[in-house]
Amino acid sequence: MVDLVSSFNFWILRRRSNSNVHKIDRYWEALTTTTLTDHIRTMHSRGYKLQTLVHPLFFRRLHNSVRCYYQTNTTYNSYEQANTELMTDDIPTVNLAFDRLKAPNKMGLNANPLVILHGFFGNKSNNRTLGKGLNEKLNRDVYLLDLRNHGRSPHIERHDYASMAHDVEKFIQTKINKEKKPIIIGHSMGAKVGMSVVLRKPDLCSMLVNMENAPVSKVPEGIFPRYIKALQEIVQDESITNSEQADKALQRIEKNAVVRQFLMTNLTRVKKDGKNGYKSRVPLEILNDAIVKGKISGWEFNSSLNRWTGPTLFIRGTESNYVADEYLPAIGNFFPNFELRDVNAGHWVNSENPTACIDYITDFVERHEDV
């Protein structure tokens, strides 16, 4: 295993220099033989499959070295226990903030509405262009939600997919006519929330649309804790009094102006002792804890116990690796009735190319409602 880990480190560095698509977090480079083995055993005991524990680039090399342990220690009970925690309704919920876009005319009042979920650090405004386009093309109500600890929704300590899904389930059960079965659409973190909803409550929704995420566990994104630290520093720095200064502070870790502007939506201007300053709209410590503990990058459902056979659409950006080809077998295991569409965009497909997303979703919904 020592030689294996050493070869990984060399290989990772080589991949970093030759590819902008396959990025391996430094977290994996620092793993010792002991921590790597312990990590695999710990996560396996929680119900993960080997191929969901590591990045696909690792899988082929790692598989032969730990295959014996994996094959001799697989038990159904470990999966069953993990899923019991995921499936419970004994989870504190919050009332989610939302915007409703009403159906353009009365013909759409009886149609199944759309429920759209944003990604990490996002809010309901991120999907407004997408929502308006679908509202007009499909002639039905569209609900844009703020997930817990985001936007204008309440802050609460627990932040994982079971709890976020339960919030959305409660919203659907209380805010949408019980005769309707909404179509749930999610981007990035919101996509995993949507997948969690249909796996937990298979009869609640009629269709599922996932943009830029897959039902697999990945390496935690190393950039997000750095984003959070930068936002915390802006809030604490009394010398930062305007947006130009805040943007300059973010430039140290993020060169993309669009991403910096996106991050800035999580800050709001306030007066501090008579001076201008900033405070965070979101609970940065709670979100940082969720990131570093793998609550956002992780995926604890198991397809041997949880599957959804309803119509499912996956949309991925051609310049992104969030839905890599290696993940398609896992997608098929959880969602056997899935379709895949590629959009000319990066990870932010809903804002970079909303027209293509709207067209694909419209076609998908109309075809399956005609069945």
CATH superfamily of the largest domain: Alpha/Beta hydrolase fold, catalytic domain
Whole-number total of structural domains: 3
CATH class of the largest domain: Alpha Beta
Distance between the termini: 53 Å
Class per helix and strand makeup: alpha/beta
Number of strands: 9
pLDDT < 50 stretches: 1-35, 47-81
From the alpha carbons, calculate the radius of gyration and give it in angstroms. Answer: 21 Å
Percent strand: 5-15%
Mean pLDDT rating: 83
Question: How many DSSP helices?
Answer: 16
Sheet with most strands: strand arrangement: 1-3-2-4-5-8-9
Global morphology = globular
The level of helicity is 40-55%
Q: What is the CATH topology assignment of the largest domain?
A: Rossmann fold
Reported for the largest beta sheet, the result is: 7 strands, mixed
Fold and architecture overview:
The protein has 371 residues and is of the alpha/beta class. It has three domains: 2-74, no CATH class; 95-218 and 299-369, Rossmann fold (3-Layer(aba) Sandwich), CATH 3.40.50; 223-290, no CATH class. It is 46% helix and 12% strand. It has 16 helices and nine strands. The protein has helices spanning 2-18, 26-29, 33-45, 50-53, 56-73, 76-87, 128-138, 161-175, 189-200, 223-236, 243-250, 257-264, 284-292, 328-334, 349-352, 354-369, and strands spanning 98-101, 114-117, 142-145, 183-187, 207-211, 267-272, 275-280, 312-317, 338-343. The strands form two sheets. A seven-stranded mixed beta sheet has the order 1-3-2-4-5-8-9, with helices on both faces. It has a two-stranded antiparallel sheet with strand order 6-7. Strand 2, helix 7 (128-138) and strand 3 (142-145) form a beta-alpha-beta unit. Pfam families: Abhydrolase_1. One of its GO terms (biological process) is lipid metabolic process. InterPro entries: AB_hydrolase_1, AB_hydrolase_fold. Keywords: Hydrolase. This is AB hydrolase-1 domain-containing protein.
